[in-house]
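SEQUENCE-TO-STRUCTURE ENTRY
===========================
What this section holds: a protein sequence and its matching fold, both as plain text.
Tokens: labelled as protein backbone structure tokens, with as many entries as the chain has residues.
Question of interest: how does this chain fold, as expressed in backbone structure tokens?
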Amino acid sequence: MVEITAAELRAAEKIFGDRLDLAKRYVEHLATSGTERGLIGPREIPRLWSRHVLNCAVIESEIPQGSHVADVGSGAGLPGLCLAIARPDLELTLIEPLERRVIWLQEVVDDLGLDNVTVMRSRAELAVGHVEADVVTARAVSALTNLAGLTIPLLGGKGEVVAIKGRSAGEEIEKAAKAIRKLGGVETSVLTVGDNLLEEPTTVVRIVVNKPQKKS
């Protein structure tokens, strides 16, 4: 069992509620097969709750009820699987190009019985037209200048990107501003999520997209 501190447990109870046992089982998958197959580094095991699962799951507060969420470069399911566990009202599409990660994600989805998740083997740019999401999430995928082009087109012209970023989020926004505007981004902001729950809150870049319809 992966140890969980009292503070982490309080946060996990608040975020996952009666689905906390599912979250614990997911963490065990990360610590065992996820590590064995190279999705998570062995050194991360003691920090799985704080640095990974809670850091991701806390962004559920920024996602509207009943949204279809596409998680780009889902990898070990961060944040996609965290959101699927915390929010059974959401429909999740996990987009991941690497076969071994896709196989692992599907195994975890099946074991946890998550009926609100579809695992899709694809590059993000090739998923455009096949997936049309209300919200697109990403974590540790790419710098925002590149990430904007991978995420915004999946919204089909309207919706939000909610990307987990580090302390350089503000600088990334400045560099990506032109690309974001070109893709239909009308408002970009940096949010700090989980101040009252986590020892180290999560930094999020939110891009609101509303691309004008082309006149026929």
Observations:
- The radius of gyration is 17 Å.
- Residues 58-210 form a domain with the Rossmann fold fold (CATH 3.40.50.150).
- The CA atoms of residues 133 and 155 lie 5 Å apart.
- The mean pLDDT is 94.
